[in-house]
């Protein structure tokens, strides 16, 4: 407990900078559906071609996010006119290299490597060295960085372009009793995964309610998961891989649901770039699984420790990007800002695994 209480002022000053960095990188405004049909791109617009499209109309970057001078298209016939092509790595791997653009690349056109998966689930990275010009991932050191979620100090919320869509963190969770103790929603089991091994060991000491593919079924939908988490004091935000910045919706579902996240993933230091140190419990903080279980039991019955882990919520709001639409428009904006620059991603595999 003492270690969690140290250096909070330091974290606050550092985290403001991190939050503002993320704020500047997305560069977004109020999202909404376009109020008028999309027009043809003007000669001055930056045209981004989304090579693999998941369905639905491309976003109008101005009406949706306040990003001017950007047009998103899914029409491959415009390949030769596109200033940039956004290519999802997972789609290339699943379909095959033949799915990449086969025409010669027009001079100055940038290819963007888009990936939201962990390195262990991103095959054959070494085959694409020198092919791409920009990276778009969850990693903070990507050319275009969009994490799954982040928090904004309420003191800076008025300056945050997506303020009306930021989620004001519920502070009643610090005092309200919760009927459940520990929950875990898991879709991919995998007996060889560290998180499964840790769960099996942890449940020898404490009660853990498991939901999803191998537990009690729950209706699909993000909000359903969040509502479930609201019934529990702790949530196991266990990642399936441990890599730099690979912090997925598991953590942010717990934060939104007002539970105390118990995290397995990258290092504590990495998590502290996204949340205050007392906002989560890292499994690496404990020498044994029994010590972790014992601490959860102590916290459950200690109002002061619950307050320690949840009081930070009074000063922060949470934002979760609007996924594909926001990714595409942010990518287009960065391409527009980098016109005239020649960038080549030379060591894709080494960087992504680092």
TrEMBL record:
Residue ranges annotated for the Fucosyltransferase C-terminal domain, each copy included: 179-351
Protein localization: Golgi apparatus membrane; Golgi apparatus, Golgi stack membrane
Alphabetical keyword list: Glycoprotein, Glycosyltransferase, Golgi apparatus, Inflammatory response, Membrane, Signal-anchor, Transferase, Transmembrane, Transmembrane helix
A GO molecular function held by the record: 4-galactosyl-N-acetylglucosaminide 3-alpha-L-fucosyltransferase activity
Pfam annotation, one family: Glyco_tran_10_N
EC primary class: transferase
InterPro entries the UniProt entry points to: Glyco_tran_10_C, Glyco_tran_10_N, Glyco_trans_10, GT10-like_C_sf
Pathway(s) where this gene product acts: Protein modification; protein glycosylation
Function: Catalyzes alpha(1->3) linkage of fucosyl moiety transferred from GDP-beta-L-fucose to N-acetyl glucosamine (GlcNAc) within type 2 lactosamine (LacNAc, Gal-beta(1->4)GlcNAc) glycan attached to N- or O-linked glycoproteins. Robustly fucosylates nonsialylated distal LacNAc unit of the polylactosamine chain to form Lewis X antigen (CD15), a glycan determinant known to mediate important cellular functions in development and immunity.
Full protein name: Fucosyltransferase
Lineage: Eukaryota, Metazoa, Chordata, Craniata, Vertebrata
